[in-house]
Amino acid sequence: MKRVSNIGYLARCPANGAQEDIAPVLDAELVFDEREIHFAGSRGEVPTAFRGLESIDAGGKMVIPGLVDCHTHLAFAGWRADEFKLKILGRSYLEIAKAGGGIASTLKKTREATFEELLARSEGFLAEMIKLGVTTVECKSGYGLNLEDELKTLRVYAELKKRQPLTIVSTVLGAHIVPPEYKERRAEYIKLLVDDLLPQVAKERLADFCDVFVEESAFSVEEARQIFKRGTELGLRPKLHADQLSNGGGAALAAEVGAISADHLEFIDDAGIEAMKAAGVIAVTLPLASLFTWQKPLNARRLIESGLPVALATDFNPGSSPSFHYPLSMMLACTLNRMTPAEVLKASTIISARAIGLDSKLGSLEKGKAADFCIIDAKDPDTWMYNFRGNACERTFKNGVLIYEA
Ligand SMILES: [Zn+2]
């Protein structure tokens, strides 16, 4: 057992309480081992039995739960930096797609990549994320879009679970877009997902969740319903990319199918908010994607004030969000989504853990939770987000083990 002493500001981010309730303690200590947290609170209240323990000096800095990025498309091949410039110069999505760019180019490169290549690259990304304080990552497939390459991607995530320290949760996103070769045969592609991919994923236990991109350019509400129905029968809980570019009824569908989360939601309406709230669906905001695509960001204030919990993620992918910088997305959640730093901190930890079904195990600094935490060189969350720097994370601990030190 170990203890972190001299914590200037401990943000416990408890599972209970409102979005802004991070239950801060000034002059705090944390007692933990590799299994769990034994104490998180004021220095004066540390139980006598823990007082003589070997201690790690936090230097008066802030300690927060390990960050939980609950929406990434981690395994892909190639980048699309050439398109970045074209988009700045005003080329349309269609023009870029015609020139062989867009998601089709990532699809092609990811299909060509070997399992080992995807594994090495994804592991490299995770190693960088650890330095930013991230300790749990949700990873989606969706750049294979055929049986073989979707399974290849999900097997990469299964292998990552075994060989690196972060907690990985995986999601099958066979319904990202209809792949070009099925463009005129949509129903056949959906049949492939429902009859072949999802059953195989469930059989090999390759995913925890089943995601569908519900959008005019991707899948209709009715198509999504069929996919979720089969996924649910196989034990894969629904997650959605919903209402990003238009109000397509994604939020209402998320409530109807009992989704654990609905992500994006830039165009959610009041009825959608109420439906998600009633069904207990977590809203996930992805401000990096809004920033990179120069699209309207989600007004998360409206959701929070309606009583709907909001989680945060990077949406790391080579097209709309080519950055895995989670603290950057946190700062953008403040400035673009109108969330306070305390609300954002809870969105990045315990509520994000809820969006991937891990909130009983991690995401807050409470007795019995996994000892996932980091030491941040800032006085408090307000100062951290306001005086934003490249990286303020000094040390990252996963399951009580130091995995990064600046
Ligand atoms: Zn996404």
Describe this structure in words.
The protein has 406 residues and is an alpha/beta fold. It is 36% helix and 23% strand. It has helices at residues 81-88, 93-98, 103-112, 115-131, 147-163, 186-203, 221-233, 250-256, 270-279, 287-293, 300-305, 326-335, 341-347, 350-354, 381-386, and strands at 2-11, 24-32, 37-42, 55-57, 62-65, 67-72, 134-140, 167-175, 209-214, 237-242, 261-264, 282-285, 310-312, 373-376, 393-398, 401-405. Helix 4 packs across helix 5 (147-163) and helix 8 packs parallel to helix 9. The radius of gyration is 21 Å and the shape is globular. The two termini are 23 Å apart. Zinc ion binds next to loops.
The helix content, as a percent range, equals 25-40%
**Would you identify the regions where 5 or more consecutive residues have pLDDT less than 50?**
none
Beta-strand residue fraction: 15-25%
- SSE class: alpha/beta
| 3D shape | globular
State the major sheet: 8 strands, mixed
Give the helices and strands, then pairings.
Elements: E1 2-11, E2 24-32, E3 37-42, E4 55-57, E5 62-65, E6 67-72, H1 81-88, H2 93-98, H3 103-112, H4 115-131, E7 134-140, H5 147-163, E8 167-175, H6 186-203, E9 209-214, H7 221-233, E10 237-242, H8 250-256, E11 261-264, H9 270-279, E12 282-285, H10 287-293, H11 300-305, E13 310-312, H12 326-335, H13 341-347, H14 350-354, E14 373-376, H15 381-386, E15 393-398, E16 401-405
Parallel strand pairs: 1-4, 1-5, 6-7, 7-8, 8-9, 9-10, 10-11, 11-12, 12-13
Antiparallel strand pairs: 1-2, 2-3, 5-14, 14-15, 15-16
